[in-house]
């Protein structure tokens, strides 16, 4: 995490958000009072926006619809935790995760991002009921409580699970950062990117290229803009 954060700071990504999984795959729980919890609190105090990123990240649902099965198998490798949850289970995981993250950081969460950006209908209702005011998927940022779209904005991100996926993501990033037709662009990175020099170089080039014609900003700015417009 420190490696990736330092890399982003070095190429001009001085404002960033972190997506935090409370108990990754039921194997890595965030423990109150631990060294990692203290680091999260310090990062939040420095201005890093902390998003709840599911609860365990793993998708254990038995999907009944053909579309959901396709998304679960083709768009992610068993990581779409909130794609098939019931309203009750989604609510429980949101509230448990929010309580833990806010307790650890000492600040309200900035919003919620579903693992693999995959949301089932029940998950969306649970977010609205929980008064979560910011979420995102591959193409937009919105307020689940009001359904208002805060920005239409694609994400440039990288995949390192296989050589083929990595080559594809490098090619897409190369084109997207040069064309960048949207006013607002998002850049999403993962700790695993640190192990791939080509990906790290692509991240640096993407951030540097985009910031030549844009201001590096925060999700909070989208909320503020929406509030001013309403």
Structure description:
With 230 residues, this protein is α/β, with parallel strands linked by helices. The protein contains eight helices and ten strands. The protein has helices at residues 2-10, 35-45, 66-75, 87-105, 121-129, 163-179, 197-210, 219-229; strands at residues 17-20, 23-24, 28-29, 49-52, 111-112, 135-136, 140-143, 148-152, 155-157, 186-188. Strand 7 and strand 8 (148-152) form a beta hairpin. Helix 4 (87-105) crosses helix 5 and helix 6 packs parallel to helix 7 (197-210). The longest helix is centred in the middle third of the chain and has 19 residues, at 87-105. It is globular.
| Rg, alpha carbons | 17 Å
Lateral strand order in the biggest sheet: 1-4-5
Uncertain ranges: none
Biggest sheet record: 3 strands, parallel
Intertermini distance: 37 Å
Helices and strands, in order, run as HEEEHEHHEHEEEEHEHH
The number of helical runs is 8
Helix content: 40-55%
Report the structural category. alpha/beta
Number of strands: 10
Strand content: 5-15%
Overall residue-averaged pLDDT value:
91
Tell me, briefly, the overall form.
globular
């Amino acid at each position: 995490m420190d490696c990736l954060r330092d890399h982003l700071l070095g190429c001009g990504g001085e404002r960033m958000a972190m997506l935090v999984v409370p108990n990754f795959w039921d194997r890595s729980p965030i423990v109150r009072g631990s060294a990692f919890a203290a680091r999260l609190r310090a990062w939040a105090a420095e201005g890093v926006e902390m998003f709840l990123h599911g609860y365990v990240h793993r998708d254990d649902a038995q999907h009944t619809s053909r579309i959901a099965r396709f998304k679960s198998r083709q768009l992610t490798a068993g990581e779409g935790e909130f794609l098939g949850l019931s309203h009750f289970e989604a609510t429980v995981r949101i509230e448990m995760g929010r309580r833990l993250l806010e307790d650890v950081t000492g600040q309200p969460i900035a919003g919620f991002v579903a693992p693999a950006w995959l949301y089932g209908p029940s998950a969306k209702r649970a977010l609205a009921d929980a008064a979560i005011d910011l979420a995102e998927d591959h193409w937009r940022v919105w307020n689940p409580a009001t359904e208002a779209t805060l920005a239409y904005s694609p994400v440039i991100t990288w995949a390192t699970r296989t050589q083929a996926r990595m080559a594809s993501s490098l090619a897409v990033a190369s084109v997207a950062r040069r064309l960048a037709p949207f006013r607002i662009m998002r850049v999403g990175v993962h700790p695993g990117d640190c192990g791939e020099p080509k990906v790290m170089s692509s991240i640096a080039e993407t951030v540097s290229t985009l910031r030549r014609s844009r201001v590096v900003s925060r999700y909070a700015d989208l909320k503020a803009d929406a509030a001013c417009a309403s």
